[in-house]
Amino acid sequence: MNRLIISAIAAAAMVAVTTPSASAQSSRNPFQIGASAGVAIPTGDLSNIANLGYNVTVMAGYRPLYTPIAVRVEAAYNQFGLKNTSGNVNIPAFTGNLVYELPGVSFSPYVIGGAGLYRTNVDLTGGGTSGENRFGFNVGGGIKLPLSTSFETFVEARYSHVNVPSGSLSYVPITIGILW
What we know:
The chain has a single domain, classed as Porin. Helix content is 18%, strand content 64%. It has two helices and eight strands; from the N terminus they run αβαβββββββ. It has helices at 2-27, 44-49, and strands at 31-43, 50-62, 69-82, 87-101, 108-124, 129-146, 152-164, 167-179. The longest helix has 26 residues, at 2-27. The protein is elongated and about 55 Å long.
């Protein structure tokens, strides 16, 4: 009889402990919008011609309730100064990404990856501009810190890669952002 009472109390305690998190999860809006900014580090062939740059991104996402997988679409702008001449390389990108959020208590690590359209432009001061649209991909990870059920901050790093006729352009934006 005592085991039955102890088991019933334990089961009730488990329900009481898990119910608030389930109700908090269900009160979360599955749609998010956000923005981020940070540095963009050129790698590979791009590092031979370009200096450290910057990244600015706006995003919209959808994460269904009770699943760790989300979908995020992004519009990003990356710009790098040229090393040996006056001008810059800019790479606007429009990508679709999958986000897999790992379980976390006060913060949530995640992995992200996707593909999309990258426009590679070289602008020479006093000279011409050349640009072309290419498909590319990105992969990386980050850490989200929820501040409320509808507002989060994050830090993220991603490797982005685009093939061009003369080689490839790759870079790693390291950004800080917000989602609400």
